Amino acid sequence: MTTLMQFKDVDVHYGPIQALKKVSLTVDEGEIVTLIGANGAGKSTLLMSIFGQPRISSGEIIYRGEDISQKSAHYVASHGLAQSPEGRRIFPGMTVEENLLMGTIPIGMDHAEEDMQRMFELFPRLLERRNQRASTMSGGEQQMLAIARALMSRPKLLLLDEPSLGLAPIIVKQIFQILEDVASTGMTIFLVEQNANHALKLANRGYVMVNGEIRLTGTGAELLVNPEVRDAYLGGH
Ligand SMILES: Nc1ncnc2c1ncn2[C@@H]1O[C@H](COP(=O)(O)OP(=O)(O)OP(=O)(O)O)[C@@H](O)[C@H]1O
Predict the structure, then answer these.
(1) Where are the beta strands (DSSP E) in the chain?
(2) Ligand 1 within 6 A of 14 CB?
(3) Which of 43, 46, 53 to mutate to test the pocket of ligand 1 (most atoms within 8 A of CB)?
(4) What confidence score (pLDDT) does residue 89 get?
(5) Which ligand 1 atom is the nearest neighbour of the CA of 44?
(6) Which residues does UniProt call coiled coil (predicted)?
(7) Which end of the chain lies in a sparser environment, N or C, as judged by fewer CB atoms within 10 Å?
(8) Is the pLDDT of residue 175 over 90?
(9) Within a 13 Å sphere around the CA of 37, how many CA atoms are in the beta-carbon half?
(10) Is 41 helix (H, G, I), strand (E, B) or coil?
(11) Which regions of the chain carry the CATH code 3.40.50.300?
(12) From the CB of 164, is ligand 1 less than 6 Å away?
């Protein structure tokens, strides 16, 4: 397997607070890897550090053989990394179509029309809403739009920050079904989630983060039955 992204002993500090402590993890091509952990564990910090905000204080972030930890967000985005951020951050006043076009910024408009059609096949709901302002859509639809927008830059690695956040269980199920569909196209996915149950069922491998440290790692199936994971993240079920 080819390693696509690797964190090697990464530390991140916010002033006196150490948010990431010697974090090491790998994502291989074609895998779905999840990072689970409680509120405040450091999951978003890890994702954002890929784009240089915050900058890491030591260690390396290797992407396709190159240390990208000191590169600009634009450099990272134009080299095949796309993120659907926590809270979605779509443009509320823009239509679905306009939001999708914003996703092409890192690569240019050459394939925009063709890629938009692909997104409408993957997300039929977005086709129905293509001329609607994003702010008028439901939370689940907005999440679909955020994922589709990230895919518009033809990423090699799709980074997702808590796609289930604030959504009703039935919608969460739909979102995870879509992620399975996206993964079946060969896309490599790194998924940060508090919803351990769904995330571990979807993922090939997972990491558990506690207070900025990687506490456990294993296949999704192994972590699902791990007693510590069950107690802390699956409500003991
Ligand atoms: N900009 C910041 N300045 C100072 N401290 C921060 C900043 N952002 C995050 N932190 C702190 O760093 C730690 C990790 O936060 P982070 O948001 O990465 O956690 P998380 O696991 O993503 O949680 P959540 O699920 O709430 O997003 C927390 O203690 C948080 O308070």
Answers:
(1) 3-14, 17-28, 32-37, 58-63, 66-67, 81-84, 157-161, 188-193, 205-210, 213-219
(2) yes
(3) 43
(4) 82
(5) 22
(6) none
(7) C
(8) yes
(9) 26
(10) coil
(11) 1-80+159-237
(12) no
Q: What is the pLDDT of residue 77?
A: 92
For the entire predicted model, the pTM comes to: 0.93
Pick from 10, 12, 13, 14 the residue to mutate for probing ligand 1's pocket: most ligand atoms within 8 Å of its CB: 14
Checking ipTM against 0.90, whether it exceeds it is yes
Q: Cβ(47)–Cβ(204) under 8 Å?
A: no
CATH T-level fold of 1-80+159-237 = Rossmann fold (3.40.50)
Q: Whose CA is nearest to atom 1 of ligand 1?
A: 14
Q: Is 42 in the pocket of ligand 1 (CB under 6 A)?
A: yes
Distance in angstroms (rounded) separating the CA atoms of residues 129 and 139: 13
Q: Does residue 163 register a pLDDT over 70?
A: yes
Tokens standing for residue 161: 């920050």
